[in-house]
Amino acid sequence: FVPGAVLTLREGEHVALVATGSTVHEIVDAAALLADAGIQAKVVSVPSIRPCDTKALLSALQGSKAVITVEEHNINGGLGSLVAEVLAEAGMGAILKRLGIPDGEYAAAADRGWLRQHHGFDAAAIAALARELL
Prior knowledge:
39% of the residues lie in helices and 22% in strands. By secondary structure, it is an alpha/beta fold. Strands 1-3-2-4-5 form a 5-stranded mixed beta sheet, with helices on both faces.
């Protein structure tokens, strides 16, 4: 592991799916669902928010029509915020949707699968949102 590294796990031209931690599994599965529908999703893992190689992150997002971030905590101040800053500062006009625990809500003490489905960031929900954005 290189501190700040950004890892592109799958190439795709239609939408970029960006996640951190254990939610990377969800975007990998969502990309497979999208591929079955003819949509090519880029899969980007950001193992560390700080430090983060923001130039590499921007490079990974270039050319994407839409970007979806996925994190298993509050959407404010985390990965989604980092990606929003990187896109805004570069003047890149991609659509951005941040998935995670909405502001004002809390993660329930429950099974991980239920929690992700409840908050709309399991693989099926991510794939459905990507199809909607495109």
